[in-house]
Amino acid sequence: SAVISQKPSRDICQRGTSLTIQCQVDSQVTMMFWYRQQPGQSLTLIATANQGSEATYESGFVIDKFPISRPNLTFSTLTVSNMSPEDSSIYLCSARLNTEAFFGQGTRLTVV
Amino acid sequence: GQQLNQSPQSMFIQEGEDVSMNCTSSSIFNTWLWYKQDPGEGPVLLIALYKAGELTSNGRLTAQFGITRKDSFLNISASIPSDVGIYFCAGQTDSNYQLIWGAGTKLIIKP
User: Fold this and answer.
1) Could A42 and B3 be called an inter-chain contact, meaning their C-beta atoms sit closer than 8 Å?
2) Mean pLDDT in chain A?
3) Which residue in A2, A14, A112, B111 has a CA-CA distance of 20 to 30 Å to B28?
4) Residue B24: what pLDDT?
């Protein structure tokens, strides 16, 4: 299995500002993913972040709003830019090890 | 985006009862994964299934990969208070490493 450390675990941010979420994996992994999850709801994939290539974004998510870095095989960041209250959600990073996906504990973001 | 049909949406059960939930899809999957998510935490992998017909156990949990490859179920025997949480199924095809998620089953144990 993989252990994934995600930080911050929660934050309250002013609208118009940006927040960068960090995700550290204890193993080298090729594929990492960023999800958004409303409380009590299922997971929505934001983008796939593979080391050495540009992140691939899902429909409804764009790089200008959610820039992603993937500098090496154990680390990734997601930035939520120019935040509005609609961005309030839980953001989760995930890493794929063999055929299984493991998750960080999530970042609960509240935009005021 | 695409979702699996997961049911029930929620369950109220007595401690000690057995629990069953399932996911169905119109698409064929090569992998089925079952996760549990506690409040304030990320999903934790419970069971992974890789072959049609496969039946796998993890303690009191048992999951099966449907023979048609379009469904899976998860059973929990003799439920205990720490089983409370939201259970998600997720399916994957070989051609696409992305996971397709169910909407979740919220398990609540009556006091």
Assistant:
1) yes
2) 94
3) A2
4) 97
